[in-house]
Amino acid sequence: MSKTYTRPPALFAEYDISATFDNVAKLAEKEIAALDRRYIIETPQEDLARVFEDRNIPDPLVVHFDRITFEDGQVEIDISQDPSRGVWDRSQPYYISVPQLTFIVPFQGQKDLFKFHSGYLSPVAHGYVSGQELRIPCVAWNGVITSASAEFEREKQTLQLHVGALNQKVAEEGERLRNRIRSAIIAHKQRAENELKQLAAVPYPKRGDANGPIPVSVKRKVRATPLPSLSSRSIEEFVLPIVDYHAIIGSISNMGIAIERSPNTYAQMGEEQFRDVFLVPLNEAYEGLARGEVFNFHGKTDILISYKDKNLFIAECKFFNGAKSVSDAIDQLCRYITWRDTKTTLIILSRRKNFTEALKTTMQSIEGHNLFVNRQQVLSETSVHYRFRHPQDVERHFDLTLVAFNIPNSDE
């Protein structure tokens, strides 16, 4: 049975893209202004700018007009008000069945962009957005199928004009947003440097978290940095500087890449064996400070680096088994950390053949977690630095970095 015809909704007709970009810019500026002083100073400006740009500036729409396909069917149309039709009683609907061709146009990019005004006013484009496809139904009103095809050619030309105009606006607004992001980073960095200088001039130690913890450069063989003097502190508290945090992530990443390149050696290992493998380079580089499977708060954590009984770094090593396994791993990590633990890592090992899909699911699960705050820095295709709210104190944040690897399966 054929369905009754309903005209598809208008495309490029709901939201103003300039106002949307302005709102996004304000949110980005607010988020940048809230970044920790030491973080904004120590993180390379280009890296930080790229994180905010990648997150907030959409790619242009790419509509594949060279890959169009169609489906054919029938649809019921009401001809009661059509004066060219011979209908005796026009006081009520009179339906007839006519051919309908639904043209399917694949595209790449954010589908929500089809909701924004392109700036091209007439004619209006119509269609349905379904996944990464546009579905444009065209009716053969006179019963001749070729008339539906001719109608689609007109719709296609209109669609091309709107897409071109929208992409031009996205490029212009994206450049304005890029400039605002970089200006906000520069301004906050200068403000943070000035504030730290003023705070350093106060002749008393500061209580609290903002500047209280002492940055501890873990004594790596590759960069032997002496520990700072503790003479002016009554309570010894320590925090891992962001550069050392990323260096630890780098050690884990290098070991993971080595594992990926030697599939036969590691194919049958479980989580605990992989944890021990990651401990080897960490202890080599950080002079025995890394420990495995140690007690911490509500349970045991896989990898721990501490200094003078203060935890500087905590990591969990888990196999990927869908979105829930990632969410559960984050929950487990949150149960392990204490109020003073601020640097954590989630090592995800995937034995799925489609590693790209597993990686995408992992990142979506992380950013969908109820404690997720924002992305801080994209370190590589498989590693992202995130900021999370602390489970025991919503006003306190902790760092969580994803490091994912494609591990061969033993039966492959």
Structure description:
The protein is α/β, with parallel strands linked by helices. The chain folds into two domains: 3-79 and 92-184, no CATH class; 214-406, no CATH class. Helices cover 38% and strands 26% of the residues. Helix 1 (17-33) runs parallel beside helix 4 (145-200), helix 5 (242-260) packs across helix 7 and helix 8 (323-336) crosses helix 9. Residues 209-237 and 288-301 have low confidence and may be disordered.
What attributes does this structure have?
412 residues, alpha/beta, 2 domains, 7-stranded mixed β-sheet, 9 helices, 38% helix
The gist of it:
By secondary structure, the protein is of the alpha/beta class.
Mean pLDDT: 80
* Alpha carbon gap, first and last residue: 48 Å
**Percentage of β-strand residues:** 25-35%
* Largest sheet entry: 7 strands, mixed
Structural class: alpha/beta
Tally the helices. 9
Task: Chart the SSEs and their pairings.
Elements: E1 3-4, H1 17-33, H2 37-42, H3 45-56, E2 62-63, E3 69-78, E4 95-108, E5 128-130, E6 133-139, H4 145-200, E7 214-215, E8 238-239, H5 242-260, H6 263-266, H7 271-285, E9 290-296, E10 299-307, E11 310-319, H8 323-336, E12 343-350, H9 355-367, E13 372-380, E14 383-390, E15 393-406
Parallel strand pairs: 1-3, 7-8, 11-12, 12-15
Antiparallel strand pairs: 2-4, 3-4, 4-6, 5-6, 9-10, 10-11, 13-14, 14-15
Helix pairs in contact: 1-4, 3-4, 5-7, 8-9
